[in-house]
Design goal:
Layout: H1 2-15, H2 20-33, H3 39-55, H4 59-76, H5 79-96, H6 99-112, H7 118-125, H8 129-143, H9 147-164, H10 167-183, H11 187-195
Length: 196
């Protein structure tokens, strides 16, 4: 089971989040987990499937997987799982167009995020969940025509990324910034984000 989960992470790197191979590996891992009681392994398998479904634009299935992540988080009272589950749910709801409920989940993820838990998050998700939550929420605020509030959340995500000094997380924040400024029709800031 541990090998399957590691293989899933490797396949994501090689073939992308939406690869059929990724789906097969995480589906098999979930199937095995259903026969044993191991919340961390089950959470990882379901998180892999949620990400797969998100990148394939299968938002209804992504929402189901996100609900499972939140349930595991609630049962285990694990704050990191709770942040990941809320971020996953918010992201799937956002792309499905349910912005009101997406906002609730993004704010829940932001509220529960703790910088001190960063290393555990990176092992679980390969990115910092605080950076991701602030960046996703900043995009949502653009749709609510609140670009100033969005820019503040984007800045908070950048502050975390700069403190971490981790290239992948900084790249994530820079991509989000470029997207944010592009939506706001600000070519100078978009260019600045792409050159940093």
């Amino acid at each position: 089971l541990d090998i399957l989960l590691k293989l899933g992470a490797i396949l994501i790197t090689i073939t992308g989040f939406g690869s059929d191979n990724v789906n097969q590996v995480y589906s098999r891992a979930e199937e095995i987990c259903n026969n044993i009681t191991n919340a961390p392994l089950l959470f990882s398998a379901i998180a892999g499937l949620e990400t797969y479904n998100l990148f394939r634009a299968h938002y209804d299935e992504g929402i189901k997987k996100s609900r499972q992540l939140i349930d595991i988080a609630d049962d285990s009272e694990d704050e990191i799982y709770s942040v990941q589950g809320s971020l996953a749910m918010g992201t799937n709801l956002f792309w499905k167009g349910d912005l009101i409920n997406a906002e609730k989940h993004f704010l829940n993820a932001i509220g529960k995020y703790r910088f001190e838990q960063h290393h555990q998050m990176i092992q679980l998700t390969s990115r910092d969940l605080g950076v991701a939550s602030h960046c996703h929420y900043s995009t949502l605020l653009n749709f609510f025509i609140q670009p100033d509030a969005g820019e503040r959340h984007l800045a908070q995500g950048f502050d975390i990324a700069r403190r971490l000094k981790q290239p992948f997380t900084m790249g994530y924040a820079l991509c989000a910034a470029g997207h944010f400024h592009m939506i706001n029709l600000d070519p100078d800031k978009t260019l600045e984000s792409s050159e940093e």
